[in-house]
UniProtKB/TrEMBL annotation:
Alphabetized PROSITE patterns for the sequence: PROKAR_LIPOPROTEIN
Presence of the UniProt keyword Protein transport in the record: no
Name of the protein this chain belongs to: G-D-S-L family lipolytic protein
Signal sequence region: 1-19
Transmembrane spans: none
Keyword field: Signal
The keyword Signal belongs to this UniProt entry's keyword annotation: yes
Length: 499
């Protein structure tokens, strides 16, 4: 012990000497040498719809286009010889478009704190993007918001005159090469060495966001007869994607293709509860009385006793309210048995259940008055919500059936054309269920407005969500082509545009 204490002064002198005379060298980080593997990123072209364009907060605008996942990919590709990535930028950050000076689309949304609670509100001002002001040149981002699979192949889809007639797409009309051009024709003409394809979401999404108001066109091979809200026939979808890939790979280009996410995983369908109605005791009693739904319930019971409906349907259609929170809204359900021939008052209505998905826009409609002069005409309570406000289980089945078929097609085409495959379906499901933990410990998930994954329209990702998508593409590309691209840091991108 004495010997140990005797050494302490010398030890102290040694430490002092080290501090004063011997600096500690920190090794320089070894630079990473990035390689493209077998891929050639010299000329990258992105094909798709709004998800490719960078659509966010219900609009397309400059910052959103800059933060699109293809632009993030292009920044990675530039590390290994990738060239410039040209984008058909909108005229401003408002997002609204005009045709002949007349507004044809609204501005992007921001979170407004002016009311009782924060709510998505369009930014003020008039967007300066005039559709008839044609852009010149070629563009690497060929994402066209709103486009369905077969519309990417449609001649005249970028016609300014067609926009005025409702037969063409205003986003593509801004930068199409001619009035008769097709999106894929213009994309293929650029001679891409590498491409990404993420298309087909609108073939079911428009039906779903419309509350299932369209028609399932399964079996109809003529898309010219489809309405906007219809679900595309699986064979039409398969033929369209195959034609797109034939065009994009004709000169030997390699690429990556992504499947489609389940639309019911997005905040547009997971935010508004089926039972948001609070009632006082007097109102609940009135709604249950013979003057209101009591008569409807009695009429149903009478027809059930006549075996015109089952006991199960009687229970499903019986409408009751209780004092307090948590009353379910009343909805129209066209899949119920039509009883109006027996009693015109027995329309196809019932209360929503947890299996029904209320669309995001219903949050500002439920509780409003159907008739401003009648204070009892409350939408969702005394007045049933129309089909457009809810996606019922039967309608969800139509979406799921189509999605399953579409994704089987995409997986098969990825193998047939030897492309990198991105499982966006699983990615978005994970974002919805568990979220993704970031380097700082934060979680990015699909919670509306606060989760960081989705923008305020509840359908399209926020910039941070697009970064997660970009990394999924990078991972698939690295795996397929032997590249070692670094990806992007989602924390470098905002979880929500503030202004």
């Amino acid at each position: 012990m004495k010997k140990f204490y005797a050494l302490l002064p010398f030890l102290g002198l040694f430490l002092i000497a080290c501090e004063d005379d011997t600096p500690i060298d920190t090794p320089e980080p070894i630079p990473v040498e990035y390689t493209s593997g077998s891929a050639d990123f010299t000329n990258y072209v992105a094909v798709g719809n709004s998800l490719t364009a960078g659509f966010s907060d219900n609009a397309l605008f400059i910052d959103g286009q800059t933060n699109s996942f293809p632009n993030m990919l292009a920044s990675n590709f530039s590390l290994v010889g990738g060239g410039s990535f040209e984008i058909p930028f909108m005229a401003d950050n408002l997002g609204g478009m005009t045709l002949g000076g007349n507004p044809i689309s609204g501005n992007r949304l921001i979170l407004s704190f002016l009311g009782a609670s924060p709510s998505p509100t369009p930014v003020t001002g008039q967007g300066t993007t005039e559709v008839s002001n044609k852009l010149t040149g070629t563009y690497n981002n060929m994402g066209v918001p709103g486009a369905k699979s077969y519309e990417l192949l449609a001649p005249g889809y970028g016609s300014v005159a067609g926009v005025a007639m409702g037969t063409a797409n205003p986003y593509f009309a801004r930068f199409s090469s001619s009035e008769t051009a097709t999106v894929i024709g213009d994309a293929a003409a650029q001679g891409a060495t590498f491409f990404t394809l993420w298309a087909g979401a609108n073939d079911i999404l428009v039906y779903a966001t419309g509350g299932g108001t369209g028609v399932d066109q399964n079996g109809n091979l003529d898309p010219s007869t489809y309405s906007r809200n219809d679900v595309t026939d699986p064979n039409v979808f398969a033929g369209s994607l195959d034609a797109i890939l034939q065009a994009m790979t004709a000169n030997g280009a390699e690429g990556a293709i992504a499947n489609l996410p389940n639309v019911t995983d997005i905040p547009y369908f997971t935010t508004v509860p089926h039972n948001p109605i609070p009632l006082d005791e007097a109102t609940a009693a009135y709604l249950n009385s013979a003057e209101a739904y009591g008569a409807y319930n009695a009429g149903l019971a009478q027809l059930q006793q006549m075996s015109l409906i089952t006991e199960e349907e009687l229970a499903k259609r019986t409408i009751t309210f209780s004092p307090g929170e948590g009353n379910a809204v009343v909805i129209i359900d066209e899949d119920l048995t039509d009883l109006t021939a027996f009693n015109p008052a027995l329309i196809n209505m019932r209360q929503a259940t947890e299996d029904d998905l209320m669309v995001l826009t219903s949050r500002s409609f439920i509780g409003t008055l159907a008739d401003p002069n009648n204070p009892t005409s409350i939408n969702g309570v005394a007045v049933p919500l129309a089909d457009q406000w809810v996606l019922t289980p039967e309608e969800q089945d139509i979406v799921e059936t189509a999605l399953t078929s579409y994704n089987q097609t995409i997986a098969g085409l990825a193998a047939a054309y030897d492309l990198a495959f991105v499982d966006a379906n699983t990615l978005l499901n994970e974002l919805n269920t568990d979220g993704f933990q970031q380097a700082d410990g934060s979680i990015v998930d699909a919670t509306f407005a606060t989760g960081g994954g989705f923008s305020l329209d509840g359908v399209h990702p926020a910039p941070r969500g697009y970064a997660i998508v970009a990394n999924a593409f990078i991972q698939a590309i690295n795996t397929k082509y032997g590249s070692n691209l670094p990806g992007v840091n989602p924390l470098d991108y905002t979880g929500l545009y503030i202004d």
